[in-house]
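Follow-up to my earlier ticket, as requested here are the two runs.
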Amino acid sequence: MKKLLVLVFLVSSSLVASTINIAVAANVSYAINDLIKEFNKENPDTKVLVTLGSSGKLTAQIKNAAPYQIFMSANMKYPKTLESDGLSLTKPLVYAQGSLAILSSKKQDFSKGIEIVKDKNIEKIAIANPKTAPYGKATVEALKNAKLYDSIEKKFVYGESISQTVSFSITAAQLGFIAKSSLYSDKMKKYKEGVNWIDVDPKLYTPINQGIIILKNAKDNKEVKVFYDFILSPKAKKIFKRFGYLVP
């Protein structure tokens, strides 16, 4: 009788529980837990496994057969590349639009705006690696358009992802260019606008359209499609807005 009960439990568990595997750009790390929590309200039996990293590195992993089923990139470039390579089941769609902020753990005179980077007391500036992280690329673009890049490049401390860059901004550097979304996490709410951070003028960089695709590993997986639809839904958009994103 006990053996029969164990067997029934195992079979029922396998029928109910399902797992999906998603690759998520580091800037979304601050919002992803709230997104999954909201998703699980209506889909309690679907477990969402998250791998965080820079969009460039996640793309390289996908090209090398990493078992991800959804890719939430920090821009549209990488999903489009994967689509061109035949690794996507869907066309890239924008799920959110990110923006840049300048952060310091210490009180700063932000009346200078982005020009604060020239301050002689600012010896180190954290930025995400522009070769693999779209927010790093946007940072370089903003500084070049502001005619500041060449004079301060020697101050840069590079993070491999935007989350590492946030860490460097409050530990290893006096300033950092970060994803504004990171400022809305519980850990970061102690930093105040105008005192510890300011927005970077969005006119200085190309809008950061963040793209999502379903990958080939998810063929015929209904749970993956449900999560994908959720990320593009009004409920998810409310959460993205709460974390400082603009939404399409």
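Run two:
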Amino acid sequence: MTMIANPPVASAEFDPRDFRRTLGRFATGVTVVTYEHEGEYLGATVNSFTSVSMDPPLVLVSLATTSRAAERMVGKPFSINVLGHDQHDIAMRFAGRPEAIDEVRWNEDHIAPRLAESHAAFVCEPWAVHEAGDHILVVGRVHHYEAAEDGDALAFYKGQFLPLGIA
């Protein structure tokens, strides 16, 4: 398969802030990608997450190339934790506001740490990394997955966290 990338021509009409605001019209789920680095459990709040393949079971997250996660996580097992509607504080903690929650509870029973009370979780082995502009696309092969019995997911829409409300 041949892929052709045609970057947009620089234009006075292309406004990056307006582009970002327009992308915000697409509602996404909220995840925290967790991993171990030098004996410490770390994570990053990410809303760019998608399934890639059923066979083999692959998922993908997109990380800013300037993020600590992009620097520290590549090549290591990681977990993608889908947040529940009441986990706004956890999203904020891993978005760079550590004061949002005092303590994070972890599960350590698989190849990568995961949040103890997420709505769903996917524990992954590294599969591939692709450069994509100012982001990297990290593909993981799912080693373990689980989901909560009920409850609503946390969504991100127009720059705000909202309960999905469809349980």
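The only thing I checked on run two: The chain has one domain: 28-159. Let me know what else you need.
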